[in-house]
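Replying to the earlier thread about multi-chain prediction with a worked example.

Input:
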Amino acid sequence: MIQLQSGPVEVGGVTLRNHLILAAGVLGTCGSSLARMLREGAGAVVSKSIGPEPRSGHAGPCLVVLEDGVLNAMGLPNPSSDFRGELDQLKGEPVIVSIFGGNPDEFGTVASWFVDSAAAFELNVSCPHASGYGAQIGTNPDLVEACTAAVSRFHKPVWVKLTPNVTDITTVGIAAQDGGANALVAINTVKAMRISPEIRKPVLGNRFGGLSGKAIFPIAVRCVYELYGACEIPVIGCGGVSSAADVLELMMAGASAVEIGSALRGNPGLFREITGNLYGTDGISPAEIVGCAHD
Amino acid sequence: MIQLQSGPVEVGGVTLRNHLILAAGVLGTCGSSLARMLREGAGAVVSKSIGPEPRSGHAGPCLVVLEDGVLNAMGLPNPSSDFRGELDQLKGEPVIVSIFGGNPDEFGTVASWFVDSAAAFELNVSCPHASGYGAQIGTNPDLVEACTAAVSRFHKPVWVKLTPNVTDITTVGIAAQDGGANALVAINTVKAMRISPEIRKPVLGNRFGGLSGKAIFPIAVRCVYELYGACEIPVIGCGGVSSAADVLELMMAGASAVEIGSALRGNPGLFREITGNLYGTDGISPAEIVGCAHD
Amino acid sequence: MVYLLQKLWGALMTDQLPVIVAITRVVGETPSVKTIFFDRRFDAEPGQFVMVWIPGIDEIPMALSGPDSITVQVVGDATRVLGGLLPGDMIGIRGPFGNGFSPKGRILAVAGGVGAAPLLPLAQLYPGLTFVLGARSASDLLYTNFLKTCSDLMIATDDGSAGYHGYVAGLLRDMDLSCYETICVCGPELMMKSVFDLLDAKGVLHNGQFSLHRYMKCGVGLCGSCCIDPDGFCVCRDGPVFMGDILRNSELGRHHRDASGRRC
Amino acid sequence: MVYLLQKLWGALMTDQLPVIVAITRVVGETPSVKTIFFDRRFDAEPGQFVMVWIPGIDEIPMALSGPDSITVQVVGDATRVLGGLLPGDMIGIRGPFGNGFSPKGRILAVAGGVGAAPLLPLAQLYPGLTFVLGARSASDLLYTNFLKTCSDLMIATDDGSAGYHGYVAGLLRDMDLSCYETICVCGPELMMKSVFDLLDAKGVLHNGQFSLHRYMKCGVGLCGSCCIDPDGFCVCRDGPVFMGDILRNSELGRHHRDASGRRC
Ligand SMILES: Cc1cc2nc3c(=O)[nH]c(=O)nc-3n(C[C@H](O)[C@H](O)[C@H](O)COP(=O)(O)OP(=O)(O)OC[C@H]3O[C@@H](n4cnc5c(N)ncnc54)[C@H](O)[C@@H]3O)c2cc1C
Ligand SMILES: Cc1cc2nc3c(=O)[nH]c(=O)nc-3n(C[C@H](O)[C@H](O)[C@H](O)COP(=O)(O)OP(=O)(O)OC[C@H]3O[C@@H](n4cnc5c(N)ncnc54)[C@H](O)[C@@H]3O)c2cc1C
Ligand SMILES: Cc1cc2nc3c(=O)[nH]c(=O)nc-3n(C[C@H](O)[C@H](O)[C@H](O)COP(=O)(O)O)c2cc1C
Ligand SMILES: Cc1cc2nc3c(=O)[nH]c(=O)nc-3n(C[C@H](O)[C@H](O)[C@H](O)COP(=O)(O)O)c2cc1C
Ligand code: FES
Ligand code: FES
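Result:
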């Protein structure tokens, strides 16, 4: 397998320590767990999505582990503005704050809380299981553009995280770009469900949830490939990544960096494991790899 | 695990020998392989999708097997009207002919060839990798309604097979219902891609393909659940089914019957294996199970 | 070989959807605590926990008080419904999860209230251990009949209605703890904190093993709701049992986070 | 044990994307046939095939003529590009797929043209077998130098430029075939059909094993493009090698289907 040159990575206005980023919502509610992931070798971390009001999230079960993925419907639990305190211990670290809201104003309000502490914002317009939020915005290009614009005015880098649960992800990517996004993140989870045959009910408290992990990797590759071809701003890949080979594949599809979530289950040392394989002293320039599958 | 009463199954105007149907495009190009699947225990079979002109399909690779699924871009190869000859040996058997076209007229033309030989039509408005066909129709509710109406006029049962690659599958399901569909089939493959890291190119000749098999089962359950809640006509589940438990789960989500494709790889005896587990002398009525997860 | 394959197969090939069990027996332990037995035994270390799905209601973490039982104290909606279930009712179980106790040498178990639940399997596995059992009042003491038969049982009640009058930490203060190589502790946060401080003061904190409670949603180390300061450990995955010295300077007894992640 | 685990692991846990190999050597066998060696050996039975990806062009089925080689006859676009590749060039390999030959007792191999490719590993594995090699002309004969050293080689050429003058079936007609327990055949469809008819006439069809060619797209028994009448067997998965008696009344020598599935 090829290896890459190591060194800081500039993506969407943020300097990452390497190409790997902790995905939003995974071990991202506490400053201390974000700090831990940085210690464990993440090149940057994205927080849990923070919204305009504290939310407890959906009734359980909130998450079940499947043979080849994870199905979750956390329901965007978050401490809202109280999250500011979590970031005190992370001054100067590459922390991207994920935010959500029900309209552009709410996005603006939430962003305003973190102008001093976030290296960038990631807009969650893609969570498939929280009514009024997430994908309910992210399937409407006009709203995506407006929400992005509402956050862009803080003159911090804005990443917009997209849902694959749309007919054409590129129209949403272009809307985000038009709203002033500095990067696109693809993908959030794929809307899905499992049913308990004995109970005869959906297993998730919220019935519907989002599929992540290995099962969605080929969908993520496709979305990154489509967005890279259609948009000018960098794409950050996400979905089912669990090895250095997966990182390279997403980069070849067009990802400038890669987020990792579900694969951390049972393996908090994964970032270091992957960077160990991904980088080498004879590594080639990442620029040679990003999007090369399009040539 | 619960078991079902065995016996013929009436779904969408067709009498199936059991709840299991061979999915379109899998071992469905020859009359002899369709007959074989019936011998192997399928309750009915759907043919390869037949179109207005013969097509050779995409350049290879057309299909790769993944850890938890299959990625294909066959490109709708089909012998067009010559397919009539394949059905000679299948008179009176439960054979559903899958058809596709680029507009309502083409759907009508293709259907007209099989009015005497098909037990029903399944409209492929969902293949994610054939330009001008399949999902390019199936993402437009008006076109779906028109194509369905164009085939309905033959007074044969019409099943419409839907793509999950849309923002809201229920709007397309309702359009099909409005066009006169007797049943909905959900889902076709999920648009996806894999890249060969060494070659630095997508592995499929067509670059984009469709993901099937285990990986998409939770997406299929979700789509069936959504359609069952939104539509009046029966839903036939499809996607990642490989066991009797999967069949029951899709039925609880709302499926009146279930199609199986990828899981037949290496296991042509799967239909018999599943019916062996699915039915029992003390089995309960299927009516008790279909859609029960909605209660 | 077959075993290994099963493990491999199990690990690789199985969806970890909740395993549905039927309740076989419900035993009232105290006015507000019931032990619920079900028709399936789970292979767990003492101290591991499961996520219990009460269909239609919620899913909550519970220690296994035996291979086929949980012991539930009614404190809110989910526990109320759980405590009201009857034989034949079905619940879902995910797990066992986390790291249990790592007993070696002479063992002291220190339980407060329903914190006795994860310690019960320890008493079953290591008869002869010393068991310090605390509760508000005599009627709140758990498992005393059983514990009497197999352990060196010492009792403390807040109101003095049985055993030592006062908190568990008070009882421990007068004991020689240096003879225990393993001191397993589970109970309400403040009780654990006082035991923690006591062990620290007595210089035996490194022998302490504390089973923590934090708000849990996923149970598998992903959602982050159970993480503790300052190291960001997941109680569900890195715990729930932590060695005493790892918890020095931790949030134990200082703060925790609620369902939304707010500190309280 | 380790082996078994590897198999299990391999079967369960590996994406079967094309394995990329680099070409190490290209040997011109005849004016239109080349053997291409690559830097990786595949574990295959004689008669199994692989799907060969020529990036940017197509993917086509090819027998393995050795653990690390294919022997390609140029007949169209993909084979032309493949035949023009040089050492260092990369191709992708999926497989090996299908069921190979099942040799037992005395073996007779009957090859026509590039049909010798899947039979070559048989000659390597079973030295001393009888090998009937047919081709249009002396210059089209494959592997003769090697086959001379390890087999009882008999040659037939359509134009009489070497060996028997005429078709392979003609040569076989005069032989006593009853002494062979296994008769493995591969070659152009009509050559196979005449051998098939001859074996049938001689009453030894049940000893015949025929390696069929049909249009293949997936190689794994899903797409249906390689299915044969009247039983609907997949040549890629149930074959490519079929026992003679299974093919009685089959489409062999009568019709096949093109890339679109039309009979021709
Ligand atoms: C590892 C672990 C093991 C536990 N073992 C036991 C046991 O053996 N027996 C027992 O009775 N209780 C046990 N608990 C506590 C039990 O999970 C809570 O009492 C229960 O979740 C309360 O739910 P409720 O809906 O009845 O109460 P609510 O009204 O929802 O809440 C009451 C209080 O319970 C706690 N709580 C609620 N939901 C959760 C949750 N998902 N995770 C953690 N805490 C929560 C909160 O502190 C809350 O303030 C354990 C907790 C943990 C973390
Ligand atoms: C199991 C099997 C093993 C084979 N082994 C060898 C071998 O060892 N050496 C060798 O030279 N050839 C072998 N072939 C034949 C080889 O696959 C075809 O010659 C090749 O696919 C032609 O491709 P093309 O693009 O060059 O020709 P095209 O111009 O595309 O077609 C020429 C003819 O080749 C056949 N063909 C084309 N594509 C395919 C395909 N995907 N599957 C099957 N046939 C096809 C058709 O009959 C077609 O009419 C084998 C075929 C099969 C099915
Ligand atoms: C438990 C869990 C919680 C998540 N929470 C969020 C969230 O708050 N905001 C968000 O944008 N994405 C969230 N996601 C989605 C992930 O960030 C990621 O997009 C998705 O899981 C796919 O990546 P993966 O396969 O590497 O997990 C969550 C995923 C999981 C599994
Ligand atoms: C090789 C292959 C070919 C297919 N061809 C068609 C087709 O022609 N028409 C169609 O509607 N669906 C086609 N499909 C989709 C399947 O019918 C089915 O919807 C999908 O594979 C999901 O089911 P599964 O997971 O059981 O395979 C094809 C799938 C595969 C794997
Ligand atoms: S409960 Fe989710 S990380 Fe611990
Ligand atoms: S090549 Fe696809 S079934 Fe044989």
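Chain C has six helices and 15 strands.

Feel free to reuse this layout for your own posts.
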